[in-house]
Design brief:
With about 200 residues, this protein is mainly alpha-helical. It has a single domain, classed as Growth Hormone, Chain: A (Up-down Bundle), CATH 1.20.1250.10. It is built from six helices and no strands. α1 crosses α2 and α1 crosses α5. About 30% of the residues are buried.
Length: about 200
């Protein structure tokens, strides 16, 4: 269900080239290869979203943390980052900065998933699969941006950012809940940005 690296790289190359050179994407709307690559990338994003949803179900089933509105007050005590994706919204969509923000967000959440792994040691395989998919997506975007001569940030292979610290086990559990909730929203925005391109 994963996207071949070449397919994703070509898709992003087309999107970035069109965005940077001002060519209308409408020219590509009937291009079967473009649509195929776009659909594959949407499927790949759906797979990552599905894995996050599976982890959310585990948190709900094992920790009894299921509803965000019941945990809002606890959240105020936690230092949980929400990766920005404002450049991926329709009103302000810019392909280059959107893909840069997707990469930055994937890096943040890749590191944050260590918190989930500590919470759910019995589901390490799922967390590691998710991290691998995220790393592959990020590196494909980086490679394509480099090929186009765009500025990229090189992230270390091992995450260097400090993990959030929690004052209690309960705060750790709630922190894990919100990391997954934020990541799911992040993925939904990235997905909508790509789907928006299919409708141009």
């Amino acid at each position: 269900a994963t996207v071949p690296a070449g397919g994703l790289a070509l898709l992003l190359g087309v999107l970035l080239w069109r965005a940077l050179h001002g060519a209308p994407l409408t020219e590509l709307s009937g291009d079967q290869d473009f649509q195929l690559f776009l659909q594959r990338n949407l499927e790949f994003t759906r797979k990552i979203r599905g894995d996050v949803a599976a982890l959310q179900r585990v948190v709900c089933d094992t920790l009894q943390l299921c509803k965000e509105d019941e945990l809002v007050l606890v959240r105020q005590d936690l230092d949980i980052a929400q990766a920005p994706l404002e450049q991926c919204h329709k009103r302000t969509f810019q392909a280059e900065t959107c893909f840069s923000q997707i990469r930055a967000g994937l890096h943040i959440y890749h590191g944050s998933l260590a918190t989930i792994q500590a919470l759910l040691p019995g589901h390490t395989g799922l967390v590691e699969t998710l991290q691998l998919d995220m790393a592959n997506l990020s590196s494909n975007i980086q490679q394509q941006m480099e090929d186009l001569g765009l500025a990229t940030v090189t992230y270390p292979t091992e995450n260097q950012d400090p993990l959030p610290t929690f004052s209690s086990n309960f705060h750790h559990q709630v922190g894990g809940f919100f990391i997954l909730a934020n990541f799911q929203r992040f993925l939904e925005t990235a997905y909508r940005a790509l789907r928006h391109l299919t409708s141009l």
